Amino acid sequence: MDGVDEAGSCDVYDLTLEQKLGDAVGKLLIDWGPGAKAWIQRADQQSKRIKELRTEFKEPDFPGFLNFIESLSRLDKLPKGWIAVLQFSRGIYLLTCPRTKEQYVGSATGEGGFWRRWQDYIQTGHGGDVALKSRDPSDYQVSILEIAGTASTMDDIIKMEGRWKSKLQSREMGLNRN
Question: How much of the chain, in percent, has pLDDT values that exceed 90?
Answer without folding.
Answer: 46
